[in-house]
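I'm stuck. Protein, please.
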Amino acid sequence: MASNRHLGRIIALQTLYEVDFRTDAGDLSCDLDEVLGRNIARYANLMKDVKFTTDLVMGVFKNSQKLDKILQPIAPEWPLKQIARIDLVILRIGLYELNNEKDVPPKVVINEAVELAKAFGSTNSSKFINGVLGTVLANKQTIKKVKKI
């Protein structure tokens, strides 16, 4: 199950990154369901928990503005527009999971986000992701805000 969820997080990252990039570039033909369906189909023989991936993508996508409002004060020296797109998507996924995945321990969520950053981000991405999500976990006031998502 764990490795399947890791794959699910990779698919979620790829999907959300592509949609964010294409939407930001003004691609009016970009369709979240089409991108997600294509990415899931690519790994269909390995996927056992499509619902986890679908719920993660839809949850992050629908709540991205709320997630961004929570993230911005945690890293005030990094305006969201200055954070690498891949790092921002990983942070959104991690923050969403911290709030919504009751069966996944918070440290596992952070570790998974760090692993995504190591695989897909830049040299310092994993440290940045770990620091921001660690701050979320340590800050009780932030956790209360997260609970509202």
